[in-house]
Design a protein that fits this description.
Helices cover 48% and strands 0% of the residues. It has helices at 10-24, 29-36, 40-53, 73-85, 92-101, 108-114, 125-133.
């Protein structure tokens, strides 16, 4: 039989220790469920897997596999080429809107992650300059006028 190495978290090692005690008969399933903060049924499931697959039973089966929610790599590639060539200097939210208009389906969060400052050779200033200059005139004063308030002034604060 070929030996396979796998990484376990501290929690998974603790579960493995307790479950080995259950298999040896030194602890009951109820005690194990209390110690591990799991339901009795979860402990039974782990025990059944432990009897079949030894130590791998406590490691999550999806570890090392790609997410089911990841975007198709072709969508990412198209989006990033459009941003590099046609949408240079656009704020990520506006770039996302243009990508949606172009027929690419992706979330703003995904695009923000791809366009994080320093990635793609886009300087961080592109993101921060726009934010700091919004709503300001050249002299640094607010572009919003000082209008009179329509709220009653009761004189109290």
């Amino acid at each position: 039989m070929e030996k396979v190495l796998f990484v376990m978290s501290r929690r998974e090692r603790d579960v493995l220790k307790v479950m080995s005690l259950v298999l040896e008969g030194k602890r009951t399933q109820v005690e194990a469920s209390r110690l591990l903060d799991l339901s009795n049924w979860q402990v039974r499931r782990i025990q059944m897997r432990h009897q079949k697959k030894e130590d791998v039973c406590v490691v999550h089966r999806r570890r090392g596999k790609p997410s089911n929610r990841r975007l198709n790599p072709s969508v990412r590639k198209k989006a990033l080429t459009m941003v590099r060539k046609e949408l240079v200097g656009f704020h990520p939210k506006h770039a996302w809107q243009k990508l949606i208009e172009a027929g690419l389906k992706l979330s703003t969060r995904a695009l923000h992650g791809w366009l994080a400052p320093g990635r793609l050779g886009i300087p961080a200033a592109t993101f921060s300059e726009r934010k700091s200059s919004m709503g300001r005139s050249d002299n640094g004063a607010s572009a919003v006028s000082n209008r009179r308030s329509f709220h009653k002034n009761t004189g109290r604060r």
